[in-house]
Amino acid sequence: MEITHDLSRNVFEAVVDGYTAYVSYAVVDGVFDVEHTVVPREIGGRGVAAALVKAAYDYAREQGLKPRATCAYAVAWLKRNPSYQVPPDSGE
């Protein structure tokens, strides 16, 4: 699955079988907040949401941003992936 990042819209997207899934985020004061994860029902259950959220938090990590989640899916994802909860080399 190809995931694209539209920096101008703060969105990570993937098109699967003609359906577009996306994660939208905001960056404020060094905090990267996944606000929404949207996967059409037709492509649900294939790991699309997990791949998009991971791509988003990988980007946040590369930028040295602190991860946060407003979106319920992203909250659960961060709990399952505790290594993403603090940026690497942050000293926290």
Write the layout of secondary structure elements.
Layout: E1 3-6, E2 11-16, E3 19-28, E4 31-38, H1 48-62, E5 66-69, H2 72-80
Parallel strand pairs: 4-5
Antiparallel strand pairs: 1-2, 2-3, 3-4
Q: What is the molecular shape?
A: globular
CATH topology: Aminopeptidase
> Whole-Å distance between the termini?
34 Å
- The CATH class, by name, is Alpha Beta
Could you say how many structural domains there are in total?
Answer: 1
What's the rounded overall pLDDT mean?
A: 93
Give a quick set of tags describing it.
92 residues; 26% helix; alpha+beta; five-stranded mixed sheet; 2 helices; single chain; Aminopeptidase
